[in-house]
Design brief:
Elements (H helix, E strand, L loop, with lengths): L4 H14 L10 H6 L4 H30 L8 H23 L1 H7 L10 H12 L4 H31 L9 H15 L12
């Protein structure tokens, strides 16, 4: 299978920085805000989402291309993709409960909520809508997962710094968290146009 290395790099970097699903498209915000209080939980959630995104992309692309589309079943896309994602999330939950119980406990309710994490679902739909090849779909999923992990880790550091800074009473808790998330999101807008011109 032939593929252009430059295009794969652009797809990867765009998913990580330019079109970051959390900070640019505001998808998957629930775990982003809920689990980013400490680095261990953030990294655990980020790696879990990365794994689910890659596996979901690997599973949904061939099902869409070789089963749904040829048989005129495109209208079943949403239902089928969500079932696949739910199965993968259950697999992650079982593995974490068995081998990493501390991370499983720290993720709490946000782990099963990953089934309806719109960032994971958006990656699978985006791969089909952009007419990516299988390799491009996997690269896009890796980039999206790394972007989610990056956003989680950076935001954890930001939250720790704002908590240590002792903000005014009116800003403590949710207000300072949302303001910090907005500023971090604005910072990622600086990557607009950079990746597309990387190889020019």
């Amino acid at each position: 299978m032939e593929f252009d290395f430059k295009s794969l790099v652009i797809i990867m970097m765009s998913a990580v920085l330019v079109n970051n699903y959390v900070l640019r498209q505001f998808l998957g915000v629930c775990p982003f805000l809920g689990v980013s209080k400490d680095l261990k939980s953030s990294a655990g959630m980020g790696l879990s989402v990365l794994f689910v995104m890659i596996m979901a992309a690997a599973a949904t692309w061939p099902i869409q291309v070789y089963l749904l589309t040829p048989n005129g079943l495109g209208f079943m896309q949403t239902v089928v993709f969500i079932l696949i994602i739910a199965t993968l999330v259950q697999l992650v939950e079982v593995v974490l409960r068995k081998f990493l119980p501390a991370i499983f406990a720290s993720l709490g309710i946000y782990l099963p909520l990953m089934t309806t994490n719109c960032a994971v679902f958006a990656v699978t739909i985006s791969n089909i809508n952009n007419e990516y090849t299988f390799i491009e779909a996997l690269v896009s999923a890796v980039g999206a997962g790394l972007g989610f992990l990056l956003a989680m880790v950076i935001f954890t550091g930001v939250r720790e710094q704002t908590a240590a800074a002792d903000p005014p009473e009116a800003f403590k808790g949710i207000p300072i968290t949302l303001i910090s998330a907005a500023i971090l999101s604005l910072a990622f807008f600086a990557f607009e146009g950079v990746i597309e011109n990387l190889f020019k």
